[in-house]
Amino acid sequence: MENIRLLSTSMVQATTDKVKDVRIELTQCDLKLLLVGAIQKGLLFIKPKSLEDQNSLIHHLKTSLSRTLDFFNPLAGRLATVEHDDNTVSFFIDCNNAGAQFVHAAADGVTMADILHPVYVPPIVHSFFPLNGVLNYEAVSKPLLAVQVTELADGIFVGCTMNHAAVDGTSFWNFFNSWSEIHRGLDQISNTPVLERWSLLNGSISPPIRLPLSIINNCSDAFIPTPLLERVFHFTKGKIAMLKAKANAEAASTSISSLQSLLAHIWRATTRTRLVEHDKETDLLLLIGLRTRLQPPLPGSYCGNAVVTGIVSLRTGEILEHGLGFVALEINKVVSSYTKNKLKDALESSLKNPGPLTVAGIACNISLAISSSPRHNVYGPDFGWGRAVAVRSGSANKFDGKVTLFPGLEEGSMDIEFSVLPETLKALENDLEFMDAVTIISS
Hints:
- Strand 7 (145-151) and strand 8 form a beta hairpin.
- The longest helix is centred in the first third of the chain and has 16 residues, at 54-69.
- Helix 2 crosses helix 4 and helix 8 (258-273) packs across helix 10.
- Helix content is 30%, strand content 24%.
- The chain has helices at residues 28-31, 54-69, 112-116, 169-183, 198-202, 213-217, 237-251, 258-273, 316-321, 324-336, 340-352, 359-365, 422-429, 432-435; strands at residues 4-12, 22-25, 39-46, 78-83, 88-95, 100-107, 145-151, 155-162, 211-212, 229-235, 281-289, 307-315, 368-372, 390-393, 402-407, 414-420.
- This is Acetyltransferase.
């Protein structure tokens, strides 16, 4: 790894085997993500002058991670498979306490300014994450969780790679926050994960879901995106409020949300800057959360995947000729259409055919794919060094058109990470309408 010095790699187990040999069946929402990459998110902290010495710090982090795994036991396990006589295979999490991977590394001579000040996300950031290039189904032999603590000259980057067939973004950040609580000396965590998943989604229907063995055997992890540039754009609470007001006024509506308005702004700008046919269909992929939409609702701390994908389809001409309100209202209509009955039908349908996604399939068929959420508690983790100053993501699941949503440091603001072709990003930066809503944070 460029400028990265690997200091140690070890496995960290939960302190107790109380759930060892427990089997957690993967649901249709989990299996949808079997053939893509892990969740890779990390936080950059200022290194306090009073920080304990290096060896004590790493020992303390490993100890607190071990205790956190007592609550998140599945993450210390591995995926397991059962091959059936009809040429199908089923997957489950074997809570065998095989352990999570812990990597200690140093980025010699790299400062926080080297990460935060460049206009584009520097490639070295991807080296702050372990298990790069590993797909979720490979966790039969690789950890479901790997963390990397990278020491910078004046900072600490804590990067987590977590299997996306085991958890979603909400579960990911619950783990991150819980680890920091244990590290600060708490005996209990504030949001205990609910590990039961199958019955909460599928009631009395018996597991497992069987997938054609050919899907796994023919899976190729050779998808290599064209060279991309990544940049994080900052949108203040005030600018977002202006977009929302404009969208609702144009659409004669009061139901368009802040996020829907911002996504419409992004979609319109990206469509303008790409050289596409005027009457070509273009798709926006959204993640629709299930926790509050199902009846009865899922527990907020449900530990697993609780999302389905929604697609907004428009012609490029419609996006370019109509205003912000039209596009935002179309996004609003799709999100609002996911009623409890529609979600129930979608879950029942995917029980029979989960249809695992692939990064190549998304990249070839989707104009923009929206991931993560500004509602995640990204800046909650505090290991005793204060709040993080920035969040960054790894290389997993990146392709032309990937948009990652984060809350900003200031309440109500959002940071939007674009992964697109260099020419698209340069064109966005020269698009006055798009950049008018962006706030440049001074170095």
